Amino acid sequence: VVVKESCDGMGDVSEKHGSGPAVPEKAVRFSFTVMKITIAHGSENVKVFEEVKPNSELCCKPLCLMLADESDHETLTAILSPLIAEREAMKASHLVLEMGGILRTFKFIFRGTGYDEKLVREVEGLEASGSLYICTLCDATRLEASQNLVFHSITRSHSENLERYEVWRSNPYHESVEELRDRVKGVSSKPFIETVPSIDALHCDIGNAAEFYKIFQLEIGEVYKNPNASKEERKRWQA
């Protein structure tokens, strides 16, 4: 059974009563979707069920609804830790159910793909989106990302983030704050949910933006009329 996990903030859910002050109340929802069920039949897997609309809210089952701010790392950790511990136990074991008089063994595979960048940073222990280390997939800084728009590989992992958090917490080399921050590459709190790396990273966004920027410049300069424009002319378009 393949299960997709999702978690996102729901924004302000406070009720406004009378003319008194509006008390801000934020909520976070952790939910799951059963994506696919397959049965091992001989040497191949036979698909029994596959979710037709995996992004629909109709098949996304809420598992935990908490009144908390998604930026509050301590509250999220405290509430979701038992849930994550149960998930880890499910990953390492099998569920046996009797169906039609026959014992069936179920194995669960979890995919943490339903997180936006803000939540990925929160649950993987990374600094917020204003950080010098802008990418959730690699160790690139803002400067490195702007200079290197083509080559990009996934180098961060949950286990590495945990190791870096221990270095951040214990400071074994007795370094200054800046040196320590450079060593751990933007990890500042304990990661507690393993997410699946997806293409939704700021590094890629910067690359896309730079490409579109070039296209817009060529459109402004009407390069289709003059494909052999000189460097000086192209610089004028950029200005």
TrEMBL record:
Per the record, the GO terms for biological process are:
adaptive immune response; chromatin organization; pre-B cell allelic exclusion; T cell differentiation in thymus; V(D)J recombination
What's any one GO cellular component for it? nucleus
GO MF terms on file? double-stranded DNA endonuclease activity; histone binding; protein homodimerization activity; sequence-specific DNA binding; ubiquitin protein ligase activity; zinc ion binding
Task: From the UniProt entry, list the residue stretches annotated as the region Disordered.
Answer: 1-22
> Could you tell me which InterPro entries the record lists for this protein?
RAG1, RAG1_RNase_H, RAG1_ZnC2, RAG1_ZnH2
Q: Which residues belong to any copy of the V(D)J recombination-activating protein 1 RNase H domain?
A: 1-131
Write down the superkingdom of origin.
Answer: Eukaryota
List the Pfam families. RAG1_RNase_H, RAG1_ZnC2, RAG1_ZnH2
Q: Where is the V(D)J recombination-activating protein 1 ZnC2 domain?
A: 133-195
Q: Which residues form the V(D)J recombination-activating protein 1 ZnH2 domain?
A: 197-239
| Name used for this protein in its record | Recombination activating protein 1
Organism this protein belongs to: Genetta genetta
Q: What is the lineage of its organism?
A: Eukaryota, Metazoa, Chordata, Craniata, Vertebrata
